[in-house]
Write a structure and sequence with these properties.
393 residues, 2 domains, binds adenosine monophosphate, Rossmann fold, alpha/beta, 16% strand
C-alpha cells in the first residue's frame, strides 16, 4: 500500500476523501470538530508540498439529493479557520461548475466539494459516478478510516480511475495499531461488544469466535440473542431477522467451549427517559411493559473479573443507554475496568469512545479508533474494502 508521503504531489490534483461527518446543531453550527482536525496532518502535508487538493466527504444521512440541511458549507467555513490557506467551496459534487473550479484550482489551494451522499451513485458505488469524481484527478488519497468498511464510490470506485492511490496519515495510523492487535494479540484476548445495531455486529461476531475465547455482550444486541432462545425480553430492542444467525452463533460458541457471555441481570425501565423508574431484573421473563437498558450489577462484576485477566481488549459499543446517567453505569464501569488493566486496549465507536471520555480514562487506553464499524470489521476480517482498493493498483 502506498502512503501519502510516498507521492510526489507538487502541482498534482489530489482527490482527498475525508470523514467530515461532524455533528451539527439545528442552526448548522458544528458541535465537535474532532473529525476535521484529525485529517489536518494529511491536508497540511499535501498543501505544504504544493498539491491542488479536492476534498470530499459525506455528512449525515441525506436522501440522496441536494438538501441544504446537509451541506458541507459549514465545514468549509470551519476548515478555513483551521488552516492558513483559503478554502473554496463547490456547490455540487460533480458537473460543469465543479469541473471549472477544479481547473482553476492553484497549487496549495483547497476545494471542498458538496456532500457526496447527495448522489445515489456514492452509496451504490456507481462506476460512472466514480469516474466523474475522478475526472481530471491525478492521485487519490483516502484519510476517511471511519468509512473504509463501506464499498462506496468515493472509497472503492475512484482508485480504479486515477494513476496512484494512497493512504493518508490517519488511515495509516489506524491500520498500524489495529494490525498489531490482529497479528500478535497477547492472550487472553477479550472482546466487549455492545450497542444497538445488531445487524451491523452479529455478522462479524462469527469471525471473532475464531480469534478469542472471551466475548462479553452488553447493550441492546444481547436481547436478540435472548429472544432467539425463547426468553421473554419485554419491550427490549430485538431484530427479528437476525435471530437465526444469533442462534447459530450461540451453538458455535458452545461447541467451542468458549466464554460467550450474555448479561446475567438487567436494568430495565418502561421508557428511555431520565425520569423513568429503574428496575433490576434478575430472571426472565423481563416484564412485558419494560425494556432492558443497561447491564445489571452482577453482570458488571462478572465482566470486570474477566477484563482483569485480559492482555488484549477490543471494545465496541456501549453496555446500555449510557447517554442517560441512570442507564450508564454498566458502560462507565467497563470503561474504568478496561483502563485499569495493563492490557493493550483498543476502543472503537463514537459511543464507547464518548463513555471513556466521560469517565476521564482516555489516557489509559492504548488506541482510540476514529471508526467504530470500520475498526470492528477490520479486527474481524483483517481487511477492509477501502484498504483493498488502495492496494489493487
Ligand atoms: P451502536 O452504534 O450500535 O454502537 O449503538 C449505540 C447506541 O446503542 C447508543 O446510542 C445507546 O444508547 C444504544 N443502546 C445501548 N444499549 C441499549 C439498550 N439496551 N436498548 C436500547 N438502546 C441501547
Amino acid at each position: 500500500m502506498l502512503y501519502v508521503k510516498d507521492l510526489d504531489v507538487q502541482g498534482k490534483k489530489i482527490f482527498l476523501r475525508v470523514d467530515f461527518n461532524v455533528p451539527l446543531d439545528k442552526e448548522q453550527n458544528i458541535k465537535d470538530d474532532t473529525r476535521i482536525k484529525a485529517t489536518l496532518p494529511t491536508l497540511n502535508h499535501l498543501l505544504e508540498h504544493g498539491a491542488k487538493v479536492i476534498v470530499a466527504s459525506h455528512l449525515g444521512r441525506p436522501k440522496e439529493e441536494f438538501n441544504p440541511e446537509f451541506s458541507t458549507r459549514p465545514v468549509a467555513e470551519r476548515l478555513a479557520k483551521l488552516i492558513p490557506q483559503k478554502v473554496l467551496h463547490a456547490p455540487d459534487v460533480v458537473g460543469h461548475e465543479v469541473e471549472s473550479k477544479k481547473t482553476q484550482l492553484k497549487e496549495s489551494q483547497v476545494l471542498l466539494l458538496e456532500n457526496l451522499r447527495f448522489y445515489p451513485g456514492e452509496k451504490g458505488n456507481n462506476l460512472s459516478f466514480a469516474q466523474q469524481l475522478a475526472h481530471d484527478i491525478d492521485y487519490y488519497v483516502n484519510d476517511a478510516f471511519g468509512v473504509c468498511h463501506r464499498s462506496h464510490a468515493s472509497i472503492v470506485g475512484i482508485p480504479q480511475y486515477v494513476q496512484k492511490s494512497a493512504a493518508g496519515f490517519l488511515v495509516a495510523k489506524e491500520v498500524e495499531y489495529l494490525s498489531k492487535a490482529i497479528l500478535s494479540p497477547k492472550k487472553p484476548y477479550v472482546f466487549i461488544l455492545g450497542g444497538a445495531k445488531v445487524s451491523d455486529k452479529i455478522p462479524v461476531i462469527e469471525r471473532l469466535l475464531h480469534k478469542t475465547d472471551n466475548i462479553l455482550i452488553g447493550g441492546a444486541i444481547a436481547y436478540t440473542f435472548f429472544s432467539a432462545q425463547g426468553f421473554g425480553v419485554g419491550r427490549s430492542l430485538v431484530e427479528e431477522d437476525q435471530k437465526d444467525l444469533a442462534l447459530s452463533l450461540l451453538d458455535k460458541a458452545k461447541s467451542k467451549g468458549m466464554n460467550f457471555l450474555l448479561p446475567q441481570d438487567h436494568i430495565a425501565a418502561a421508557a428511555i427517559d431520565p425520569g423513568a423508574k429503574k428496575h433490576i431484573i434478575q430472571e426472565f421473563p423481563i416484564p412485558k411493559d419494560l425494556m432492558a437498558l443497561d447491564i445489571g450489577p452482577q453482570t458488571i462484576e462478572k465482566y470486570k473479573d474477566i477484563i482483569k485477566t485480559a492482555k488484549t481488549i477490543f471494545w465496541n459499543g456501549p453496555m446500555g443507554v449510557f447517554e442517560i446517567d441512570q442507564f450508564g453505569k454498566g458502560t462507565e464501569e467497563m470503561a474504568k475496568a478496561v483502563a485499569n488493566t495493563e492490557a493493550i486496549s483498543i476502543i472503537g465507536g463514537g459511543d464507547s469512545v464518548a463513555a471513556v471520555l466521560k469517565v476521564g480514562v482516555s489516557e489509559k487506553i492504548s488506541h482510540i479508533s476514529t471508526g467504530g464499524g470500520a475498526s470492528l470489521e477490520y479486527i474481524a476480517k483483517e481487511t477492509l474494502p477501502g484498504l483493498e482498493a488502495l492496494t489493487e493498483k
